[in-house]
Design a protein that fits this description.
By secondary structure, the protein is an alpha/beta fold. The protein has a single domain, classed as Rossmann fold (3-Layer(aba) Sandwich). Helices cover 29% and strands 20% of the residues. The strands form two sheets. Strands 1-2-11-10-7-3-4-6 form an eight-stranded mixed beta sheet, with helices on one face. Helix 1 crosses helix 2. The radius of gyration is 17 Å and the shape is globular. The structure holds 6-phosphogluconic acid (6PG). The site of 6-phosphogluconic acid (6PG) has 16 residues, from strand 5.
């Protein structure tokens, strides 16, 4: 493992999947611990995709104060929660959230026929949980990066990163890419998280990561929005994903 760090932007590269999972779980667990100690509870936002699974499974083996943690989702696909493509289903199983109090597990209802209404309901839930007058600042949020530079469900070329009047947005389906519609937290919410942990593995991520680390239009590479994050941003990459050029 090697580390390059500035005040808020950190890069940690892991030797292999096991180290990636162990480091990721440790970062999330520490952020949860700090939040519980200083604020009494922790608010966590979870991404989907294939990369976080090993991190979540590792985290599930740790002694977490489950009665003090609220679990939210960063984004969700417009599928039934029982679908293998459901981000809720995957994270719930990997983290063993059947052990958590039901009232602390807050899935996005992206199977709803009216996605805009479902987005508005999730926004109300966030406002209530964080406090009507407070900033929605998650204690820790996991993100991924797509080969096209997307993060959360903020895809390039759709104007998604410019949405700043809502906490949660409905994103249209992209049938040409085989992608269903989505619900997603918006860029302002991603930027407010106290700790953002971006998880990436594999050579296909090298190019989008290099683009995300260099300034330019967010509309082209949405993960660039993290260059303007307010909290700590940790890019946890493996040797394959680390940009070399
Ligand atoms: C999703 C995500 C998405 C994901 C990236 C990276 O619903 O797919 O939340 O933003 O994080 O696409 O996905 P991988 O981890 O599969 O590369």
């Amino acid at each position: 493992m090697s580390e390059v760090s500035t005040a808020r932007f950190e890069v940690t590269d892991a030797e292999n999947e096991a180290e990636h999972a162990a480091l990721g779980a440790e970062i999330v667990a520490r952020a949860i611990d700090e939040a519980v100690r200083t604020r009494g509870s922790a608010k966590v936002a979870l991404s989907g995709g294939s990369t976080p699974g090993p991190v979540y499974r590792r985290l599930a083996q740790m002694a977490l104060p489950l009665d003090r943690i609220d679990w939210f989702w960063v984004d969700e696909r417009a599928v039934d929660p029982a679908s293998p493509r459901s981000n809720f289903r995957a994270a719930y199983a990997d983290l063993g959230l059947d052990r958590a109090p039901k009232t602390r597990v807050h899935r996005m209802e992206a199977e709803a026929p009216d996605l805009a209404a479902a987005a508005a309901r999730y926004e109300v839930l966030l406002r209530r949980t964080f406090g009507i007058a407070s900033t929605v600042a998650f204690d820790v949020m996991t993100l991924g990066i797509g080969d096209d530079g997307h993060t959360a469900s903020l895809f390039p070329g759709m104007g998604a990163t410019a949405i700043d009047d809502r906490l949660v947005a409905a994103i249209a389906a992209q049938p040409d890419k085989g992608l269903e519609a989505r619900l997603t937290l918006t860029a302002p919410v991603l930027r407010e998280a106290r700790t953002v942990l971006v998880l990436a593995r594999g050579a296909a991520k090298q190019r989008p990561i290099a683009s995300a680390w260099s300034d330019g239009p967010e509309e082209e590479v949405p993960a660039r929005l993290l260059l303007r994050a307010r909290g700590r941003v940790v890019w946890l990459v493996d040797r394959g994903a680390y940009p070399t050029g």
